[in-house]
Specification:
three-stranded antiparallel β-sheet, 10 strands, five-stranded parallel β-sheet, alpha/beta
Length: about 700
């Protein structure tokens, strides 16, 4: 079966890869063949391979280099799942689903991952598992049991501890025994390469050899420690560098894992001590971030009465120069990230300094502000920019909510973030995650909390998106009752909109019609543009279900008239719905143009479900016009999107019935062989080819997009 996405998602290597030839060859062979030899020399299967070792030893780097070597053996995908920023074990399947490009519209994350992987040949890299060890083991166990073509390559400071796991212990780089014999001295090679980058002209010669080997021994051959030390040659001579290492650091080659951890901490402590006070402060405070982060976030979270903006900027630059921070290029702005061992050291120092609560509180406040801004401007010309920002900040949004749930007095912030982002959960295909955070919010609120109506009204909406119509209806009813009692008019209105969705999708169209009138009046009174836009989409769907095309078209037009021109999400769906109404009403040309415009918006937004709807609908319209080559190609292109979503047209019975009739007609007109060939061409088309459908109206898209 063709795959709708290929890898290319592995991060680029920012520095050269040094040494590890034997480890790399062995690991690549095991991953490629899925087999290892036991102690008796017999072959046994190895579906889960865990690279273990101390922090800073290079586990992630080795796993990624191995993945590049074996990528050609995994026909469908090589997928990296970064677990370092994740703190909630329950969200591990959701994180994996997002890495695979899946949309969890109405599916449990684990079920979606298994359904997608079941018939595919995929290498799944679970990176940094040690803080989620049980969840990672459970995930790997389920995947390998259900998907025979999947191999899991994990990195962790400890084994997953599951049956069938092959453990590959990664030692530090070998250090030369003496300055007379450098054979096998990968640690020295790494130090010299990194040193020559920061100190042009640096070479390993008779004068420097002994000092380099001393450094390698004192840093135990740990790659991260060596890289941090080499950077210091910008400011220190090699002899000064050697003198700076305390003799308390372990020497000798027989180190335990605990000793290696101490070696790394000693090296990090040495690097920390060489920093200025402002740099130390910033290092500590940056440890509260998850994943990568922006200068704007750093300014809000790290600056204070003891550190102004200019000092902060200077300290950031120095931390980048010293390799404590990594600067990550981005289309819009520079971003930064901190490697896990460096972040963990900073977190320990932050707690020791006694200001961890205050800094985490500022982290919560910053991401609460982002959530509020997105909610306020969710139906505006800045929607696309704000949505893209939230996608990048997703790991830190999760971290902010985790901090808010565990820090006393911050429950309201957690509730406000999770509810303010309800459109983000929907747009990003993260409704399951939104429900997860809302459930946690309800657990922290008392039965009489004034926050309950807000939580219930948002959860009602998300549950309906997830196909949980009865629980969604009950949440909406409860939210209306509690909001009316509390005099919370906005959440009375929101809950009526959610109740309308539950009734409509449950085919109780008569009750839905009554509720729609109430919801419309209440949302208008509250000036809720987002609520009115959402209600318009629901009303169009209800009228189409009732076969009243004119009323549906009128509702879509009214909804579009309320939206600013730069809004993407609701406008895309309303244009799609209006196009169907126009086509059914006999205006095929205008209807097709409306859907093509909707596709442009959904493509730019990155809305996989919306793209699937629009491309699938263009196929339906082409088939009804007997343009069967175009229809077959478009059906294949749409199917690639539906595989990520789970169900064609998310299970909409009206659209599915139309699809079955159209595909049968196209197959009969073209013949099975030609239909399948065109369908396969569409199935394997990339996003840019799909986007061209929006601007071309060719009867032979397969030839146009070659």
């Amino acid at each position: 079966m063709p795959s709708p996405r290929q890898s290319g998602g592995l991060p680029a290597e920012s520095t050269s890869f040094v040494g590890r030839e034997a480890e790399l060859a062995y690991l690549a062979q095991v991953v490629r063949t899925g087999q290892v030899r036991d102690a008796d020399g017999r072959l046994e299967r190895a579906r889960v391979i865990t690279v273990t070792g101390a922090g800073g030893v290079g586990k992630t780097r080795l796993a990624l280099r191995t993945a590049r070597l074996v990528a050609g053996d995994f026909a469908d995908d090589v997928c990296l799942v970064r677990l370092s920023p994740l703190r909630a074990p329950d969200l591990l399947p959701n994180t994996a689903a997002a890495a695979l490009g899946l949309v969890l519209t109405d599916r449990d994350a684990m079920d979606a991952v298994l359904a997608y992987l079941r018939d595919r040949r995929v290498l799944l890299i679970l990176d940094t598992c040690e803080h989620l060890i049980d969840a990672a083991a459970d995930f790997a166990r389920k995947v390998t049991a259900e998907a025979d073509g999947v191999t899991v390559l994990a990195t962790s400071r400890q084994p997953l501890g599951m049956d069938g796991e092959h453990r590959f212990g990664l030692a530090p780089l070998p250090v030369p025994e003496s300055d007379r014999d450098l054979a096998g001295g990968d640690a020295a090679d790494l130090f010299v390469q990194r040193a020559s980058t920061v100190a042009p002209g640096f070479t390993l010669d008779d004068e420097s050899r002994a000092d380099v080997i001393t450094i390698c021994h004192r840093l135990a051959g740990i790659p991260l420690a060596l890289e941090l030390a080499a950077v210091r040659l910008r400011a220190l001579s090699l002899r000064e560098l050697v003198a700076g290492f305390g003799m308390e650091m372990t020497t000798g080659s027989r180190r335990t894992g605990v000793q290696r951890h101490r070696d790394l901490r000693s090296a990090l402590g040495w690097s920390y001590d060489l920093c200025g006070e402002a740099e130390k402060t910033v290092w500590r405070r940056l440890s509260v971030f998850a994943g990568n982060f922006t200068f704007a976030a750093v300014t809000s979270v790290c600056a204070g009465h003891d550190l102004d903006r200019d000092e902060l900027a200077s300290a950031l630059d120095e931390l980048v120069r010293k390799s404590v921070l990594v600067q990550v290029g981005d289309d819009d702005e520079d971003r930064y990230r901190m490697l896990d061992p460096i972040r963990e050291f900073g977190a320990d120092e932050l707690n020791a300094a006694g200001d961890g609560q205050a800094v985490r509180g500022r982290h919560i406040a910053y991401y609460l502000g982002l959530a509020r801004d997105f909610h306020t401007y969710s139906v505006s010309e800045s929607q696309l920019r704000r949505y893209a920002e939230l996608r990048r900040e997703h790991p830190n949004i999760r971290a902010a909510m985790e901090y808010a749930f565990v820090m006393d007095g911050n429950e309201r912030a957690a509730v406000e973030i999770s509810t303010a982002l309800f459109l983000f959960w929907h747009m990003a295909g993260l409704a399951w995650e939104g429900e997860y955070w809302l459930n946690r919010s309800l657990e922290r609120c008392g039965r009489t909390s004034p926050l309950r109506p807000r939580i219930l009204s948002v959860r009602a909406f998300l549950r309906c998106i997830l196909g949980e119509f009865d629980p969604g209806r009950q949440d909406a009813v409860d939210a209306i009752r509690e909001a009316e009692r509390a005099g919370d008019a906005l959440n009375v209105a929101r809950a009526h909109c959610a109740l309308h969705r539950a009734l409509t999708w449950s085919d109780d169209l008569a009750s839905a019609g009554t509720i729609a009138k109430t919801a419309y009046r209440l949302l208008k009174e509250e000036k809720s543009e987002l609520g009115l836009a959402q209600l318009a989409q629901q009303v169009v769907f209800a009228e189409l279900r009732a076969r009243d095309t004119a009323a549906a078209a009128a509702a879509a037009t009214d909804g579009l008239d309320r939206l600013p021109r730069g809004e993407f999400w609701a406008r895309g769906y309303l244009l799609f719905q209006l196009g169907l109404c126009q086509f059914v009403g006999g205006d095929a040309e205008t209807g097709t143009a409306s859907v093509r415009r909707a596709l442009q918006l959904k493509h730019e937004l990155g809305d996989v479900t919306g793209v699937g709807y629009c491309v699938g609908a263009l196929g339906l319209l082409a088939a009804d016009q007997e343009r069967h080559e175009r229809a077959a190609w478009l059906f294949g292109a749409a199917e690639a999107r539906w595989e990520l979503v789970g169900r064609r047209f998310t299970g909409n019975p009206f659209m599915e019935s139309w699809h079955q009739r159209a595909t049968a007609a196209a197959r009969a007109a073209l013949g099975p062989e030609k239909y399948e060939r065109l369908w396969d061409d569409g199935m394997t088309a990339g996003p840019s080819a799909i986007a061209l459908v929006a601007t071309r109206d060719s009867d032979s898209p397969a030839r146009d997009f070659q």
